[in-house]
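Dissemination and training. As part of the outreach component of the grant, students in the summer workshop were shown how a complex can be specified as a set of sequence lines and then modelled as a single object. The example used during the hands-on session is reproduced here so that future cohorts can follow it. Participants entered these lines:
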Amino acid sequence: MARLVMKFGGTSVADLDRIRNVARHVKREVNAGHQVAVVVSAMAGATNQLVAWCREAAPLHDAREYDAVVASGEQVTSGLLALVLEGMGINARSWQGWQLPILTSDAHGAARILDVNGAELVKRFKERGQVAVISGFQGMHKETGRITTLGRGGSDTSAVAIAAAIGAERCDIYTDVDGVYTTDPRVVPRARRLDKIAYEEMLELASLGAKVMQVRSVELGMVQSVRIFVRSSFDDPEGIDPRAEPPGTLICGEEEIVEQQVVTGIAFSKDEAQISIRRVADKPGVAAAIFGPLAEANINVDMIVQNVSSDGATTDLTFTVPAADYQRATDVLTRAKGQIGYDRLDGATDVAKVSVIGVGMRSHAGVAARAFKALAQRNINIRAITTSEIKFSLLIDANYTELAVRTLHSLYDLDKT
Ligand code: ADP
Ligand code: ASP
Ligand code: MG
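and obtained this result:
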């Protein structure tokens, strides 16, 4: 007997038929004798609709009320799944974040989980064989008691946090793809499913654009050593032997991965914007004058490139910000023009960041150099570059994203054979 968390994303609970399918997956594990906590997302599209209504009601909405609205999507699916399970003769009960409770910080809209009380769930597993159906994405602020949400894609984080709290053997993330691929399989059909991926690599993939797992869920899994298994909810529920190893990807410690490739995966994001500050004074304190106000405005600056000054007096500085913050960032910099001292601001939102990831890069030199050459052969211009121990990122024109990803995917031997 094992204790399991089974998480189902929006597409997997998109309508009642899909919820019935989810119930059959749950039934299979219950029949195998497992203690099961299920975490569900809102029906596909539901959260987008709720977010849109908030924006329409009040463009500058109170984040507390935004959370009250957007958390409701998950309440519907947890209740419906509990109803369907009961109808199949399985003892099940739904739980909202505040009922366990799942305590969080007060950062409404992007709250952090501080503590999960799983005691009642465990008691009910043991005494009544009851399945817990928990609304993902939501929690409760530890002081005010108000409903919070964990940021888009946050049900993954709910699932991992609950798995840690109840000491689950595994946290199964059921989604609309059957695992983590070398890159988004919807964009690159030649992408290959990975059997295993290290937490650190998954963390980079997720934070650099692969939305298959929310970044915080991977962070939490790494810290709490939760074994996370990404698999498909569209497989025939009864066609799976709960004792056999199903197709999917295990996110685990690096030491568990025997055959380590140099490059594990490629992520990309079109949610970037580039800002170039022309002819800024080349002297101490200028970077502080530029990035200080942006930090105060809570704008995340990512790639930074500073040119060598050609005239000894001024230089150009280029960096990226999230596309959603582009307007705000240029406003902040225009206001600070006097303190910074520059000639002109240039910006572009039609840019994309393509990132190559692999823990093997720690011990292999020249990995990035090969990419520069391959992209040059395709006439793809690189606007900015950043590197770190296990990844490098390139900023390019958004039009070339798919071509660049496919080129690099083949270059590093990631194509499916
Ligand atoms: P859910 O609703 O189940 O949470 P998401 O839409 O959040 O599902 O995440 C699954 C999607 O992530 C897939 O449909 C796929 O297009 C996308 N994705 C992006 N990069 C990858 C990758 N490297 N491997 C697998 N899926 C990926
Ligand atoms: N329903 C939420 C969202 O769409 C959370 C999730 O699906 O994980 O972002
Ligand atoms: Mg998701």
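The chain is about 35% helix and 25% strand. Students were then asked to discuss how this feature might be tested experimentally.
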